[in-house]
Amino acid sequence: MVDKEKFGDRHACFACGCKFYDMNRRPPTCPKCGTDVSKPPKVIEEVAFTPADIEEEDEELPEELDDKNLEVDTEDDLGEEGGDED
């Protein structure tokens, strides 16, 4: 049986998520990133967000698509600006 008291308390780093035992060191610091885990970060209060807070803009969509909207430019339409690479 392993004596768990020599490993100290178990912690999880707030910055990187690493789980570790503090080996009875004070202050307990993360071995991966060096963050002092004895001082938890300040918790930011979450603000309730409701969909009513968003103003929706009415976008006018075309009722029908015509051939002009579906046309794809070809090299002939663009002209011969680049020239031939022979």
Question: Could you characterize what this model shows?
Answer:
With 86 residues, the chain is low in regular secondary structure. The protein has a domain at 1-39. Helix content is 9%, strand content 7%. The chain has 2 helices and 2 strands; from the N terminus they run E-E-H-H. A hairpin with a 6-residue loop joins strand 1 (10-12) and strand 2. The chain is elongated and about 80 Å long.
Short description:
The chain has 86 residues and is largely without helices or strands. The protein contains two helices and two strands, in the order ββαα. 9% of the residues lie in helices and 7% in strands.
Which descriptor suits the 3D outline?
elongated
Provide the succession of SSEs.
EEHH
Please tell me how large the radius of gyration is.
Answer: 31 Å
Distance between the termini: 79 Å
Helix content: under 10%
| Unreliable parts | none
Count of separate DSSP helical elements = 2
Percentage of residues in strands: 5-15%
Q: What oligomeric state is this?
A: single chain
Could you give a short account of the major beta sheet?
Answer: 2 strands, antiparallel
Kindly state the number of beta strands.
2
Roughly what is the average pLDDT, rounded to an integer?
Answer: 75
Structural class determined from secondary elements: little secondary structure
For the largest sheet, list the strands in their spatial order: 1-2
